[in-house]
Design brief:
Elements (H helix, E strand, L loop, with lengths): L12 E7 L4 H17 L3 E7 L8 H13 L3 H9 L2 H7 L1 H10 L4 H10 L3 H13 L7 E4 L2 E4 L7 H17 L1
Parallel strand pairs: 1-2
Antiparallel strand pairs: 1-3, 3-4
Helix pairs in contact: 2-3, 2-5, 2-6, 5-6
Amino acid sequence: MSETQPSGATEPVVLDVWCELQCPDCHAALEDVRALRARYGDRMDIRLRHFPLEKHKHAFAAAQAAEEALEQGQGWPYIEAVLARTAELDRRGEAVLLDTAKELGLDADEFDTALVDGRHILIVDADQAEGKAIGVTGTPTYVIGGERLDGGKSQEGLRARIEEIADRLLAADAG
């Protein structure tokens, strides 16, 4: 238990979402992520994990840009805004990443610099390596309570399964 947790408080359940910001399936999965965030609030720690796919040429840069947005305090708003523009990202490339940063009031020049100097590459590479090590092959893929759920083919039933696992973990933690 950390010192910031009041006694009796449970640790949040961790949901890792292996995602790629140029992936239409990840865009479709946003509705589930939002619903999970609304249902569990601070009882669930939803963590974006990067898994850029080779077939999407701007995905690696988008992952780095997401890390810069996180550093500037706007991680999820940026991620959601870029996912809403997957087709435009495919067409226009990195300009979309900078435009999105500007629209959210972030320091777009710093985004540009981060993409050039590669300061976030190690985070993206580490996520991708970890994903490969645990069997992630496509996006989105969810990992909760040690169980991997592949959402790349269909989101059907995944949110219910995640909720079932989360409820079980939270009940066990509270007991």
